[in-house]
Amino acid sequence: MRVRLWGVRGSLATPMSSEQLREKARSLLTEAKPEDLASPTAIDAYLDRSEHSWTYGGNTSCVEIAFADQVFILDAGTGLRPLSAQLLADGRGKTHAINLFFTHFHWDHICGFPFFGAIYQPGREIGVWSGRSDAEPLLAAQMSGAHFPVKWGGLPSKITCRQIPEDTTVEINGAKVQILPLIHPDKAYGYRIEYRGRTVCYLTDTEVSKSPHRLAEAYAAFVAGADVVIVDAMYGFLDYHDHINFGHSTIFNFIDFFKETAIGELVIFHHDPLAGDPAVSRLLSDARRYKNLIAPNATWTLSAAAEGRSWDLGDI
């Protein structure tokens, strides 16, 4: 099983501004030593080790899980467009089975769907899964009227929308899939996906910070044994108190939740569109310090989601 992040930003896509790019360039030039710029090889080596030569990314939620001849896609934010291009380039767009899993249907999680190349392939079978029974009209709405030039009813592919029941395990092309109701406006569901002994959990767009004690046990049980756990940690601790009832959380509650839970890695996801790379890095640094204080015996690692990050989990 291989996991790759294609969109990690929350609420609104945030392409890097010229000012942000200049600030990165300024930092790179300021820190560079003459030997770092001595040759193309030296420049590449310098860029490889500098914290200023990359970005967390600005696309909204989209996560790829690939195994065997399957592609599972978690959410269809703007990150789906570069994933679509990659599937076309490597041939999987035509040869592999494709299933999309939606946490919910707010714009930032579905706006990449009309730009997904596979839906324009005649006869292409695509599965759409969610915890809701009305996925089809919700997806069709953004391709209706004056919203989009291509209409849902005119798509040449064969898209089948199915509901995943709560409190059950559904087997989809060899993988076991479970959902968890989340705390978010208009309903949202988290996912647990298992394949040949490897597990990924995806719990974005949920406000656990409002009532953490009521939710801790259920969330910990849902992710137990997972290799990668991706969570909604949109806000810092103080920022959250200005965004109560927005449907999002802080990483600090998830650290509390999972301090005694056997997982491999906890990933901060759904970054605030107002938080630039330095702000996300500060949040990660604060979260790691908090983990060392509150969960010093926890064996799992902690990271912040960045576009292009991947995990090759293999099989057990």
Explain what the structure shows.
This protein is α/β, with parallel strands linked by helices and 316 residues long. It has two domains: 2-16 and 55-312, Ribonuclease Z/Hydroxyacylglutathione hydrolase-like (Metallo-beta-lactamase, Chain A, 4-Layer Sandwich); 19-49, no CATH class. 29% of the residues lie in helices and 23% in strands. The protein is built from ten helices and 14 strands. The strands form two sheets. Strands 6-5-4-3-2-1-14 form a seven-stranded mixed sheet. Strands 7-8-9-10-11-12-13 form a seven-stranded mixed sheet, with helices on one face. A hairpin with a 2-residue loop joins strand 2 and strand 3. The chain is globular and about 60 Å long.
Compute the gyration radius: what is it?
20 Å
Report how far the terminal alpha carbons are from each other.
10 Å
CATH topology of the largest domain: Metallo-beta-lactamase, Chain A
Report helical residue fraction. 25-40%
Mean pLDDT: 96
CATH architecture grouping of the largest domain? 4-Layer Sandwich
Uncertain ranges? none
Report the order of strands and helices. EHHEEHHEHEHEEEEEHEHHEHEE
Provide the structure class: alpha/beta
Assembly state of the chains shown: single chain
> Sheet bearing the most strands, described?
7 strands, mixed
Strand order of the largest sheet: 6-5-4-3-2-1-14
Work out the strand percent.
Answer: 15-25%
Morphology: globular
Tally the beta strands: 14
Within CATH, the superfamily of the largest domain carries the name: Ribonuclease Z/Hydroxyacylglutathione hydrolase-like
Tally of distinct domains? 2
CATH class of the largest domain equals Alpha Beta
- What count of helical segments does DSSP give? 10
